[in-house]
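Here is a complete protein record:
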Amino acid sequence: QVQLVESGGGLVQAGGSLRLSCAASGRTVRNYNMGWFRQAPGKEREFVATISWSGGITYYADSVKGRFTISRDNANTLYLQMNSLKPEDTAVYYCGAAPVVAIDAGTYDYWGQGTQVTVSS
């Protein structure tokens, strides 16, 4: 079992930055590819970014590419550095763990509780 706990969300003005963290724990957590998804009210959960278990492969949604950076460290913490935030980025952000690198939410076996990101104009 993999346990994920997100943190770092909050209120920020458009153009600002936030850094989300996801503390991952579990016996084989390093064998999982990690990803960030977000879900706005009334919408489906959408892909944001993913990273392989080794950290060597990353993919980003077109909407965030160039603004967001996904990373993970040796302490099994996943990060999402979000720069140049836009009001459309407002959502609950979730980290997930998947057996393969994937942009499909259905591939992810574990999810955190989510952290709210609100970008004001």
User: Anything to note?
Assistant: The CA atoms of residues 31 and 50 lie 14 Å apart. The mean pLDDT is 94. The chain is about 0% helix and 50% strand.
